[in-house]
Amino acid sequence: MDLVSRIQNLPIGKFHYTLLWVVGLGWMFDAMDTGIIAFIMTTLVKDWALTPAESGWIVSIGFVGMAIGAVCSGALADRFGRKTIFATTMAIYSIATALCAFAPDLKWLLIFRFIVGLGLGGQLPVAVTLVSEYIPSHVRGRFIVLLESFWGLGWLVAALISYFIIPKFGWHIAFLMGGLPLIYILVIWKKLPESIPYLINRGRVE
Question: Which pTM value belongs to this model?
Answer without folding.
Answer: 0.92
